[in-house]
C-alpha cells in the first residue's frame, strides 16, 4: 500500500502535526510546504514549485533535503499544487493526504477542493486535511468509513447539482436512497452510531467532510 503526503503552502497554523503520520511512504513538498517538511526534519521524496517566495539560501537547503526536485517558472497555467496532484497520481498510490491546502486565501482553498476530483477520477482515496477537518470528493459507489474519535462529526454534501440515491448506514441519522441537492443542510453534522459506517449513491459528486469543534 502506497500512501502519499502532499504539503502545500497554506498557513502552517492550519497544518496538523505531520510527525503523527508515520504511515506515509512518499512525501511531496510544494513551495513553502517543502520548507515546513524541512523544518520538521522529514526527508522529502519530491520538492516542487517556483520557489518565488523563499530565500535563495533556504531553497538550496530544501532541495538538499529532497530526493528529487521539480522547479517551474512562476508564470504558468496550472497552480503548483495541481502539478503536485498530477505527480502524486503518477505514483499510483492507494491513498493521498493533502495538508496546507486550506486556510489563507479562499480562492486557493476552493480550487484545491475542486482539484480533488482528479484523485476521484483515478479511484484514489484522497483527503484534504487541516487541524479541524478532513474532506474528500467521491464519485458514485459504495464506501465504508471507520469511526474516527478525532473527528466525531461527518457531513455528506452535494458537490454536484444533486446526488441521487444516497444511503447512509451505521450513522446516527440514516438515509435510504435519498436525493440531496446543493444548498440543502439535510445531511450536515451526522455522527457515527456504529464502529463502521457505510454510504452509497448512484450519481453525482459527493463532498464528505469529517470535522470537530
TrEMBL record:
Pfam families assigned to the protein according to its UniProt record, in alphabetical order: TPK_B1_binding (PF04265), TPK_catalytic (PF04263)
Domain Thiamin pyrophosphokinase thiamin-binding stretches: 141-207
Keywords from the UniProt entry: ATP-binding, Kinase, Nucleotide-binding, Transferase
InterPro entries given in the database record: Thi_PPkinase (IPR006282), Thiamin_PyroPKinase_B1-bd (IPR007373), TPK (IPR053149), TPK_B1-bd_sf (IPR036371), TPK_catalytic (IPR007371), TPK_catalytic_sf (IPR036759)
Signal sequence region: none
Entry's EC annotation: 2.7.6.2
SMART domains assigned to the protein according to its UniProt record, in alphabetical order: TPK_B1_binding
A molecular function GO annotation: thiamine diphosphokinase activity
NCBIfam families found in the cross-reference section: thi_PPkinase
Protein known as: Thiamine diphosphokinase
